[in-house]
What does this fold into?
Amino acid sequence: MSWMRLRGLMRKETYEILRDPSSIAIAFVLPVVLLLIFGYGVSLDAQRISVAEVVDHPTQVTASFLAELQHSQWFDPTVYPDRRSAEQALLQGRADAILWLRSDFTRLAYSSGSAPIDLTVNGVDANQAHIIRNYVNGAWLVWLQQEAARRGRPLATPVIADARVWFNPALRSRDYLIPGLIAIIMTLIGGLLTALVVAREWERGTMEGIMVTPVSTKEILLGKLVPYFVMGMGGMILSTAMAVFLFGVPLRGSLLVLSGASALFLLTALGMGLVISVVARSQFVAAMVAIVSTFLPAFILSGFLFDIRSMPRVIQALTRVVAARYFVTMLQSSFLAGDVWPVILRNALGMAILCALFLAIALLRFRKRLD
Amino acid sequence: MRLIIQRVFALTIKELLALRDAASRAVLIGPPIIQLLVFGYAATFDLTNVPIVVYNQDQGQFSRDFIARFAGSPSFELLRIVHNQNALEQAINDKSALMAMDIGPNFSSDLQRGRSAHVQLILDGRDSNTAGLALGYAQSIVLTFNQARITERGDIPPPTVLLDRAWFNPNLDSHWFIIPGICGILTLLVSMLTTGLSVAREREMGTFDQLLVTPMGPTEILLGKALPGFLVGTLEGSLIILLAVVWFHVPFTGSLLALYAGLFCFLLATVGIGLMISSLARTQQQGLLGVFLFMVPAIVLSGFATPIANMPQAVQYITLLDPLRYFLIVLRRSFLEGAGATLLWPQYWPLALIGIVSMIVAGRLFRRLY
It folds into this structure.
């Protein structure tokens, strides 16, 4: 390994970056655009749920129940004259749920108890349907307590569960989504920056020019890695600054741990791009593999949106080779909880293994030969 | 006219021949199918085996029954019983458990005397979505426990009960929602890939100049470049949708014709946008960047995982430009709601409009290359 040759290669790579502005766009424009879109566009907090209310026989009891929904910030109730028109509204998507109090509601409520409150949700979006059910359930329980107090007949609740959510007490979904998004964006940057760089030289025939020089394969790969690493870290700093200053996500961990984790992850992502590039040899194939293996796996298999433990075992095993999985966990911990060493070490180890693996494959598969 | 058709046909064949080498073909056909299989299983909002730790300070029978209800639920998995508050907090901190349950020393005696017993639940908010879902599950277990306890004691039951049911997806299986979404994403991916790099590749390799000296006009070249995207998109889309029904057993209740009308309009839009990107890009790297800059926001803003209704109003307007948004509605409503072409009309025309406009713009950009 010679420092002079390495420096020369790095300079050549830097010129190439400067000549085609798309590399700079990948490192700096991509994170800004994506964070803005993601940060403002992705939210799992249900906004006001539009409930179609149908009351067959209005009384004081039904009125007090509906008033509870009216007062809650979660609902946007509309009264429909009958069940049919409410069903139409649900079908056409004007309502998320139907709440139906039948004609015998009041009578049943205070004779036999167990008067049915009929809740129908549109189950197509199962997750939203769950959330709507939970909210209606919550409003109903609050109403039961108030009603019981009003009537002087205390309600028996044997067990009361008091929940505390640590690190994000208000369950602000932006606070946990943005760190995850940074991991996904960095996966994209790392993969895209390097995916084409080796394949491009093969396709354009410039690789032959490099081969006749005395540089070693190690130097060629390192020469490609270093400039893109510097750019990727720039993108990371930009993303973190946006998360903290624009989106107000708390950063509770130390900057040192965050930088270390980012550097390790970026090396892994760039390494994966290099492997794609070395193996593919044509830019078309490299581009396809990069698209297929970076964004969607990071989006779906990293635990960023979907809980990994709820996946089938085989898929869980598969997520272990998705570097973003470790980075998502580390970033969420770093931003929301602070430096939790067991979490840091466990995930850093996972990334380090993957990183070593990718770099080794790139080095082994990269030959200074033309065939 | 015959001549034009012949030329377009010839170019289409040439484009498809570009996929002749095994690697190109393999990356086009293999990954979408593998991805459907992997993501189809992976992408679910239904929780199973959420690890919990319990600190039980109570000696009585009731707390054991209470814990057994959690341990027996498929949603939770009792990781271990800890013996002090520290271990409880540690388990949440180092992420070995998502939820921790702290049962006080008076749990059983409170229940015995008919007083309310309190249980403290601690959840890891770093995974806010999972924590929120787990809390909902926990609360419904508490509710069933309470109901059983009330009946046992002969207490006055609450005056009302909440009956809930869901239309179109009675068990609220989130796979039924996600898998049609994945079908849409993968169709987008394949059609963008075949068109997004096609012009850029020829420009980078210099073969585009050769095309320009042929008697073909820009419209013919454009058509010849668009058709392969259509063909590949239709074939792969059909295959993926078939897999969703046959392999994942997502019920298909709508009309195939209505679905294919939607697929056609969707491909018109994606191929048009792909060609636009492709004729703007001078190198394949620029083409790749363009495809990503379009595709990633298109997926995120499509309502695939997070509802469009939750987005701020300004962002909701942007989603109107997103072809995937409309196609996902077509897919989901065809699969689950049994919607026919008349109900889906509001999705067709924006897709067709986006398609036609992008094709025209791509044609303009094309002419510029002459």
